[in-house]
Amino acid sequence: MSQPKPYRPDTLASRWEISATTVRNMCDDGRLPHFKIGKLYRIPAAAVEEYEECQTSPSADSAADTAFHGMKAASAGAINLKHARERKPRQKHGIDT
Predict the structure, then answer these.
(1) 32, 47 contact by CB (below 8 A)
(2) What does the alpha-carbon distance between residue 25 and residue 67 come to, in Å, rounded to a whole number?
(3) Is the pTM of this model over 0.85?
């Protein structure tokens, strides 16, 4: 039985709706197992399946990660705005009035 072909970054980028650069960065920082042929990145199909499985299945800690910290559930949809400090008007240089 033959193994499935490895993925190219641009193929995964369209599949995951991200950029090919992001896929390469994921490879470089160790989040996605890969191998290189010269300068070309290739990601084994098994690594893609494993990564997708980890992204779609909730872990035991995910409930704690998504819990509202210090907020009531009723106010979770509220938008909190920060007050921006008032800006001073710019002075024009070189123009006498």
Answers:
(1) yes
(2) 29
(3) no
Buried b (16+ CB within 10 A) or exposed e, 44-68: beebbeebeeeeeeeeeeeeeeeee
Q: What gap in Å lies between CA 73 and CA 68, rounded to an integer? A: 7
What's the pLDDT tens digit per position in 39-50? Answer: 999 999 999 999
DSSP string, 10-74: HHHHHHHTS-HHHHHHHHHTTSS--EEETTEEEB-HHHHHHHHHHHHSPPTTHHHHHS-SS--GG
24: nearest Cα among 16, 13, 15, 37: 13
User: Quick one: pLDDT at residue 41?
Assistant: 96
Pick the CATH number of 1-57 from 3.90.550, 1.10.4030, 1.10.1660, 3.30.230: 1.10.1660
Task: Specify the amino acid at residue 47.
Answer: A
